[in-house]
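Researcher: Next entry: Biotin-independent malonate decarboxylase subunit beta (Neptunomonas phycophila).
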Amino acid sequence: MNSTMTTKDSSFIEQSARQRVKNVLDEGTMRELISPFDRITSPWLAKQGIVSQFDDGVVIARGTINGEQTVVAAIEGSFQGGSLGEVSGAKIAGALELAVEENENGNPMSAVLILETGGVRLQEANLGLAAIAEIQSAIVALRRYRPVVALVTGPVGCFGGMSISAALCSYIIMTREGRLGLNGPLVIEQEAGIAEYNASDRPFIWSVIGGKQRFESGLVDSYISDSQSSAREAVEQYLNQGVPEIHRSEKYSDLLEAFLRLDTQDHIAPHDAQQVLLEGVASHE
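Model: Predicted structure:
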């Protein structure tokens, strides 16, 4: 699947997290778990003068995709930059653990993670890190049974611990507007300097860590246009492919070898970065 689609339906990126979940599930099957009506909020934000949100920025639901049982988690990028804390992280981990339990009981259930997140919520620090570790553990446990599909959507991107979580998934789908990396541009600029990484240079940033570059570098499985139908079709496609023979995270040694040969003295261009990554991917094939 590529970005040349000419779909005319509504934008997927412009939807809220709840609308995104509803869009990927079969019509009429969405059942939200721990909804805003349960009023389970972060106990830490209010103490720091930050207005909390009743779903803590994460929507969890179960339903079906093409009739197959699936649990879907979507992060709301507009709330605290999509960052995860104790409650929001526990909701995602709990949803994945539910799917693991269902599979262990002989009831197949896949998972879809719709990611727009900067990673750990700084206000909750170690609690957020612990929650993300639980998410990662649950992904590894679930992917043995059924696919876990990550969909990196809007311009907030997917960074920090959740970028590692995405890398652990069976498949990764990205839009052109999405970004994927361990550290966000502002963090890199702060630590390495603007001469190394200018976070305000948007064309450069997307040329290095945007959806098109990540797809062409072989780091993600699909690059889609921004439409509801494209998102739904891509999710269906990869759920139907089943569990991959070799997961991406098991290929790390090939990419590491390519990076060790990289000359870091000169400023690397997007094309050069792509070639390094492709060499690592090719060495495994």
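Model: Note for the record: The longest strand covers residues 58-65.
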